[in-house]
Specification:
Blueprint lengths: L1 E8 L3 E3 L9 H11 L3 E5 H6 L9 E5 L10 E4 L2 H10 L4 E3 L3 H6 L6 E7 L7 E2 L8 E8 L10 E8 L2
Parallel strand pairs: 1-6, 1-7, 3-4, 3-6, 4-5
Antiparallel strand pairs: 2-8, 7-10, 9-10
This protein binds NADP nicotinamide-adenine-dinucleotide phosphate.
NADP nicotinamide-adenine-dinucleotide phosphate binds next to strand 1, strand 2, strand 3, helix 2 and helix 4.
């Protein structure tokens, strides 16, 4: 199954200056649970924003147009079709984890959405792409726990594409 996994603020912000604008360990934990043992597909900019890449325990696939890009422990793809072929042959879930350019590339292919909504506003320069919500059915929704390490109220949502 091909999925999107992302977190956005009230205004759809997902990034600022190459990074995620908030600190929310609960969401990092959720992200890890969802993606662990699957494959994660990301744009080169998102890859470069990860502190100690690649993400352990997952097949990491980076999309870049740079034919010279090569990183240890990482599969490189130069187009959408390569990723779709990988997903078709894979028994594991293939999670598209951003950023915006890469979500856009797979908007017609995605079958499940894992969205974390953070109920605050942050400065941002990268926004989630528009989603046609009429095509999606909410199958799970859970409020995140707010505590001293997770100060922003947040909701975890899972949507499946309507048949
Ligand atoms: N909140 C969240 O859940 C979340 C998730 C992910 C990322 N983010 C944030 O989003 C921001 C980055 O997003 P972004 O949209 O600027 O960049 P991005 O999607 O991470 O990466 C863009 C790069 O992907 C490659 N690419 C794009 N289309 C391609 C295609 N058709 N074929 C091959 N390669 C292609 C290009 O790499 P080359 O330039 O190397 O050719 C392009 O520069 C950061 O701030 C990051 O922290 C947030």
């Amino acid at each position: 199954m091909l999925t999107f996994v992302w977190a956005e603020d009230k205004n759809g912000v997902i990034g600022l200056e190459g990074k995620i604008p908030w600190k929310l360990p609960n969401d990092m934990k959720f992200f890890k649970e969802v993606t662990m043992s699957g494959a994660v597909v990301m744009g080169r900019k998102t890859y470069e924003s990860i502190p100690n890449p690649p993400l352990p325990g997952r097949t990491n696939i980076v999309l870049t147009r740079n034919q010279l890009f090569s990183e240890p422990g990482v599969l490189t793809a130069h187009d959408r079709e390569t990723v779709l072929e990988f997903a078709a042959q894979s028994e594991k879930d293939v999670h598209i984890i951003g950023g915006a350019e890469i979500f856009y590339l797979f908007k017609e292919d995605v079958e499940r959405l894992y969205r974390t909504v953070i109920h605050d506003k942050f400065p941002g320069d990268t926004y989630m792409i528009p989603i046609n919500w009429k095509e999606w059915e909410l199958v799970e929704q859970k409020e995140g726990l707010v505590d001293k390490n997770n100060i922003h109220p947040h909701t975890f949502e899972i949507y499946d594409k309507k048949k």
